[in-house]
Amino acid sequence: MTRPELATLSSAKLEIQLTETRRPVPAQNSLEQWSQSYGTDHMLVVPWDAKQGWGTPKIGPYTNISLPPTASVFHYATSCFEGMKVYRGYDGKARLFRPHLNAARMLRSAQRLCLPSFDPKELENLIVRFAELEARRWAPESRPGTFFYVRPVLMATESTIGLRPPRQAVLYIISVSYPSIDDAPDINGATNGSGTSDQAPDLLKGPPKPKGLKLLASAGPHIRAWPGGSGDSKVGANYAPTLVAQAGAQKEGFDQVLWLYGGSGFENNPLVTEAGGANFFVIWKTPGGKLQLITLSLDHGTILPGITRQSILDFAPALFGSELEVAEADYGMEDVLLASREGRLLEAFAAGTAYFVTPVKQIRYQDADIQLPLSEGTAGKYTTAIREHLSGIQNGTVQSEWGVVLDED
Predict the structure, then answer these.
(1) Phi then psi for 329, rounded to 5 degrees?
(2) I need a surface site. Which of 146, 237, 345, 373 has the fewest CB within 10 A?
(3) Does the CA dihedral 123-129-134-138 come out positive or negative?
């Protein structure tokens, strides 16, 4: 007996029900924005089950999702997600930044968890259509240079505590009002005049502004990722276990953890992997005197293949030419320490959708405090050039096919 063909994910089937009650749009850099939980007007939902395949994609009013307490996602973290932003350009147009890369990465993450497969182009189409619907109110033309955050999620919803590949799942897309990283409060909650409270609770503290990150290199029992694990996938289970180390670092006055991997072969010179949940770059002079931008390679599976990371690697060679070599390679914390002691360490920065491109001013590694030559309120020469070029693409001042213009009509 031939099994019926399962329905595939199809953006052509999308149904839209507009909300009758629009939510107030928060003021820029308000407490609502810093909560990072203030949803926009709508959400997109698509069910899946193993017998029929993908259901009809539907956009409707933003609301809660109801699941049984036995749903697989609650017990085994069977979920993956993506993060991207809709940018309002200075030319009045709204853009997504390389959304096809997010869709392709989400498929890889889903496959890592035995979640249902899909055509990444169809997911991209759904993301674009959803973003087009929300852009005019949530990144209005009156606020050029602003953005909101889009979060697609795929999770197992089957009602069972049995550990097995899921037979039911839901794909949903939401977006939240999001503040500018450049107006983030510092780690103790003081503000820079953006209107957030001097006593803002931890949950309202966003990524640090470009005055410079202070990182505590991981030591002791905590490891973010290891070869053969899931550190190269954007799955929910990767993030919660990092919170203990993050809280410890912040208690000591640091912004985030610089995650190291000191497994087999790297015991004496642990690999530099990620800064918090962002990719990490160093600009230094090699022992031979060559100026180099370096980030860890993907070969070990210990870092997320970030969209911002890949974009920097793609445009930096043309942006800097022969002045700066661009490298994906293994390098360790001892290499960074030696470069600092020899005066070869010039700049470092974290890069990701949430953190954008944020310079690093200090790294504590064991008993050493590595200081980056960063003046207060500034980024280094090369970090600044990377920030400006990337921001230009996202905001429409630099022409690039990477900025996907949304049709808001």
Answers:
(1) -160, 165
(2) 373
(3) positive
123-154 CB burial, b ≥16 within 10 A, e <16: bbbbbbbbbbbbbeebbeeeebbbbbbbebbb
Cα distance between the two ends of the chain: 48
**367 Ramachandran zone, left/alpha/beta (phi>0; psi -120 to 50):** alpha
Q: Find out whether 390 and 312 touch, Cβ atoms under 8 Å.
A: yes
pLDDT of residue 156: 99
Query: Rounded to whole angstroms, how far apart are CA atoms 152 and 166?
Result: 18
Amino acid at 163: L
Residue 197 in domain: no
Helix count and strand count (H, E) for the chain? 8, 19
Please tell me the distance from the alpha carbon of residue 153 to that of residue 405, in angstroms, as a whole number.
23
Query: Both 212 and 353 in a single domain?
Result: yes
Residue ranges making up the domain that contains 218? 207-395
pLDDT digits (tens, 9 = 90+) for 239-278: 999 999 999 999 999 999 999 999 988 999 999 999 999 9
Tens of pLDDT, residues 312-338: 999 999 999 999 999 999 999 999 999
Q: How many CB atoms lie within 10 A of CB 40?
A: 26
Does one domain contain both 160 and 227?
no
> Do the Cβ atoms of 362 and 371 come closer than 8 Å?
yes
